Amino acid sequence: MFEKILSRSQLYNTFFGPRLPEPGTIFLLQKRVYILPTRPGLTYALALTVMLIGSINYNLSLGYILTFLLASMGLVAILHTFRNLVHLHITPGRAEPVFAGEIAWFELFVENRSGYERCSLSLWHQGKATQCNVASGRGTTVSIPVAAQKRGWLAPGRITMDTRFPLGLLRAWSYLQPDMRCLVYPKPDDGLLPLPEPSGGRGEKRVSGGGSDDFAGLRPYQTSDSPRHIHWKAAARGQGLQTKVFSGRAAAELWLDWNELPANLDLEAKLSRLTRWVLSADRDGLRYGLRLPALELAPDAGASYRLNCLRALALYGLQ
How many structural domains is the chain composed of? Predict the structure, then answer.
C-alpha cells in the first residue's frame, strides 16, 4: 500500500511538481506538449455519438454522412491543435528591476522556425493570459507580468503555454520554466521624507560637480556627473559633453547612514526609508554615500551609483 502511494506521489511530481529552471532556449518537443479535449470538445463528441445512434436506429444515409464528416473534422482538429504549439523555440529576454509592490515584466522571445503561422497562443501565469501570434519564419516578444511582492531576486516560476486553435475543441499545452530573474528593490516610504543632515554639523549638502551658488565654468563630462548639470546646448552644437561647474562653499559629505534611522523601525522599514533617501538624493543631484551594517559605499553620484545603492538595499541580508 505504501509503495502504491509513493508511486502516485512520484507520478504527480513528474508532471506537476516543481522543476529546475531551464537555461537557454526552450524547445517544445512532441513529448512536452499535452493535448486533451475541452468542454466544447466533449459536448461535440457527445453530439456525434447521439447523431450516430439516431442514424443507426432510423437507417439515415445522410445522417451517416453528416456524422462521419463532423467526426473527420474533429480528428483533423487534433493534428492542427497539436501542430500549432509543437516545435516552438522560447528564449528568455530582459527583466528590468522594479520596486516591491510593482509589476515585473519578463520578456520571452517566441520563435517560429516552421513554414506555417502559429495562431492564438496564450502564455498563462498567476491566472492571467498573454496572447500572441507568430508568423512563419518569424518571432515575437511577449512580456509576462509578475507581481513583485517583496525585495530580492524574483523568478517567474512555471509558465503555461497553450492553444485551442483552430476550433476550440481541444487544448494543447506545455510547461515552461525559463532561467531568468528580476531584481526587486525595497518599496520607498510613501511620504517625501527629508534627507538626513550631513555629518560634522557644518557646511551644506554637496552637489556633484561643486557648489550650487554661482556658475564657474565648464569641464569635461564624467560618468558620475548629474544629467541636470550637462551643458546640452554645447552638446547640440557638436562640442561634446561638458559639465557646468558651480562655485560654492566646501561641504561635508552626505551620508545615508543606517545608524541614523529610528530604532523603532524594523528591517524592511529601514530599508524602505534608505531607498527613499537614495532616490531623493539622486533626484536633487547630491553627492552621497551609503552606510549599512558590514557594508559601506563611498560617496558618489550618478545613475550607475544609484543602481549600486539600490542593489545593495535589495539584497541586504539575503545573500
Answer: 2
Q: Which of 284, 273, 313 is nearest to 189 (CA)?
A: 273
Largest CA distance in the chain: 104
From 185, 204, 228, give the residue that closes a domain.
185
Antiparallel, parallel or unpaired: β 98-99 and 182-185: parallel
Do residues 173 and 276 both lie within one domain? no
Domain presence at residue 200: no
Place of cell 497539436: 82
Q: What is the DSSP string of the chain?
A: -HHHHHHHHHHHHHHHS----B-S-EE--GGG-EEEE-HHHHHHHHHHHHHHHHHHHHT-HHHHHHHHHHHHHHHHHHHHHHHTTTT-EEEE-----EETTSEEEEEEEEE--SSS-EEEEEEEETTEEEEEEE-TT-EEEEEEEEE--SSEEE----EEEEE-TTTSSEEEEEEE-BS--EEEEPPPPSS-PPPPPPTTS-S-PPBTTB-SSEEEEEEE--TTS-GGGB-HHHHHTTS--EEEEEE----PPEEEEGGGS-TTS-HHHHHHHHHHHHHHHHHTTB-EEEEETTEEEEEE-SHHHHHHHHHHHHTTTT-
pTM above 0.70, yes or no: yes
Whether the link from the prior residue into 198 is cis, omega within 30° of 0, is no
| The C-alpha cell that represents 263 in the structure block | 530604532
Tens-place pLDDT, residues 84-140: 999 999 999 999 999 999 999 999 999 999 999 999 999 999 999 999 999 999 999
Residue 39 belongs to domain with CATH number:
2.60.40.10
Q: Which position has the grid cell 528580476?
A: 182
Burial class (CB in 10 A: 0-12, 13-18, 19+), 178: buried
